[in-house]
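Newbie here. two chains, one complex. Structure please?
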Amino acid sequence: MHWETVIGLEIHVQLACDSKIFSSASTAYGKEQNTQASLIDLGYPGVLPVLNKEAVMMAIKFGLAVDAEIAETSIFARKNYFYPDLPKGYQISQYELPIVSNGQLFITLDNGTEKRIGITRAHLEEDAGKSIHDKFSDASAIDLNRAGTPLLEIVSEPELSSAKEAILYMQKIHQLVRYLKISDGNMQEGSFRCDANVSLKPKDNNELGTRAEIKNINSFRFIESAINFEVDRQKEILEQGDSVAQETRLYDSDLKETRSMRTKEEANDYRYFPDPDLLPVKISEGIIEKIASSLPELFDQKVDRYVSTLSIKGVDAIEIAKNIELAEYFEDALNTYNGNPQLLANWMLTEVMAILNKDKIGIANLSITAQSISQLTQRIDDGTISSTIAKNIFNQLVESNMSVDELIKDQGLEQISDTNEIEQIILTVLNENQEQKDQYLAGKEQVLGFLIGKVMQKTQGKANPKLVNDLMVKVLSNN
Amino acid sequence: MERFTVKAIRNMLAEKQISAAEVFDLYSSRIADHDRSFNAFITTDIEPDVAYIADHNRQSSSSGSELKGIPYAAKDIFCTQGIRTTCGSRMLENFIPPYDATVVRKLKQQGAVLLGKTNMDEFAMGSSNETSYFGPVNNPWDIERTPGGSSGGSAAAVAAGLAPIALGTDTGGSIRQPAAFTGITGLKPTYGRCSRYGMVAFASSLDQAGILALSAEDTAIFLEFMAGFDPLDSTSVEESVPQYSQYLEENIKGKVIGLPKEFFDGSLASPYEALVAASIDSYKKLGVVFKEISLPNIGYSVPTYYVVAPAECSSNLARYDGVRFGYRSENIEDLDQFYRTNRQIGFGQEVKRRIITGTYVLSAGYYDAYYLKAQKVRQLINQDFERAFESVDIILGPTTQTAAFKLGEKVDDPVSMYMNDIYTISSNLAGLPAISHPIGFFEGLPYGLQLIAPHFKELDLLNLTHQYQKETDWHQIMPKISMSKESNN
């Protein structure tokens, strides 16, 4: 039988708020255990939650960016279950009336077609703390720094039909939340995590099969391997005529397999009910309009603009826009730049990316300012220096406090474009390399490169290469 | 032994007839000498620093000093920084909060002095103070009887003169019923009038802080400083706080009081009915007009309450699992077993009964039939009151079914215990302010009358009660406290 894969994703995005969703404690990552938790995060007797409005604004931003409905009234509910890293014995989440519903997103498939993926809902909730099982031999430890961190849970329709599509969708969401600046999207730090609901159904059958939910996958690589494993596992069961059990499964990234965590029978009854400590969240048209008018330029719009108004090659525009920080750095440089934008784009994608990759850093940690890159490429564009010299200066910029123009001046790196000066050097080179000169004149044109190389060597690369080439040919032909 | 009102103490302090320290010592020694008869307090060893500071500051400026040196007791449900707060439970036997509840902080800022933490039903669940882990409280009018609950300790302390005034909380009648049983005045303000921050939660949509006092006047003085919006409690309301004590002399002539026929259906014992009738006559003499009204859905109050309150409590009390708070059993390897044992031992019978009830009504498949339906009925009860208040200013009825009953009498019959709150519960469901004040005695036991007002009309309740108390002296009659020794008087 031919099986169709049906996948729905639940993506948990930690929102980039300074403070927690219901308390004023900091959300800073990586601090000493249990130092970023207030009495409210710790669930002390008598404390009450107060909603962080910034988190609400961020959820609305997301909703607007995916063409979703923003609920005029949404409700926080309590999801009740016992676990040591859940201090109150319930998680404050949204259940019946989420803040965002009925959105959509388009992913671009390999064949170039666009596929619409429905977004069922996105709701606000608080993160739980962390249980640490490998710190002590005889006990588990609990770190409540993460407890109360604002989360946006984004639930897709079961409309993804392969691991590949799941990754494309996840990447699109990842890119979107970073564009909207509502999350740092840092997967290593758990800012962006995913649960995948996977099921199979016979082709041409409309009824969905029984699904397994794979919990807490925190990398694009893992999601592919987890889904593929799960699809194979379910296929094998179905083809033997057995049925798939509805259950929650855990992905083991070492063994590259999923395994059962709890069955439907063992599943919690969360006893959701509206949280009486929090008022319904009311959102006015005015607020929605205000946020809508302040939405940043998104990926597709940015690529279009790069191509149509900056005349940058499509592939390069996409490559730059993929990374919002790089795109912002690029645009920052563009502000003080009068040359050909493609030249600047090339530099972003080659030299700048090379340093980022080599040092494994982000733009934020790059020591070269956008203004320096702007100045450097400007000097290539206006013929002051050659690309080779520019690369040399670029490497010096990492260490130096001097500006591009200062470095050029200081080291006398201006390009030699004086025809007389270059002609003199050419004559000297020809004198010193009589053998090659004769070979050329005898028709062996390949030695031209050697002779030009000698000129460049003599000028420490400062001679304008095009001019050297033209003059060399001219001088030789006059012989 | 004389009971002093807040007003009287304030005057004595102002006239320098007594110092704040002397006032504090007076009440401390009364508690030390007499509380063994009542068990009204759980914790009393509190440093009286503030009393001395109050004295010291009296010489300088007097702004914001309205309550300087006034001692008060607080139900042990209010978190007090550095002072054990047990909520009447073994679960919190050793819990020392690192912060003050908002109402406690506000009173402290005015210079009021905390005398001690009063006994209560465990997590405020009970109507007789018998569910307290620290033992029942005895009614000063008859120590074999209950002072009511859940604010039983606060009521007994004020009635017996061990504190001039006390804080309580009222989720279904927990201030008004004990006030009625001990012959004092008890006010439950509008839901959202006082901050719930720092009050250990029982049923969040019903809980409200309030006052047990010797008079409407004293209640007004304290309420002024307790009430108001708190940014730490999203359900507190941004509504200006009147200076209640300045408006108690307003003429109440022409006020319209509604008598719901459902409260006067002949089920009240005749001595109580006679006292209510007499109090209505007193109000008539003050120019109040009476009118019969109907609250058709009021009969559903008790069942509605016993779905909503346990549902919320089952969730609110989930944090007491022994991991961070509460009784913690040792040497248990299995997590589920650890939770089970801690909660089995840490909670008393009534609390467990309500957690189980609440868990049941929220369960998948039962939610619609119980919790959702109860919320709908709650809306209907709300609407009953809204309609009634279109034609009346105040609604009047009995506070309780009977006078204080004997300890042990209802402890094994939860339904009969629950029915105790039949007159009080509806104002919690509707979030309305309500007061109980004494209206007389029968066979040596006090009885109370309940007045209910529209949202944020506490002033009407205090104004009416004050005018009544000017014409009567029921609120001044105190129980005979066996004279052991009185060191400071």
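Moderator note: The CA atoms of residues 219 and 418 of chain A lie 56 Å apart. Residues 3-288 of chain A form one domain. Thread marked as resolved.
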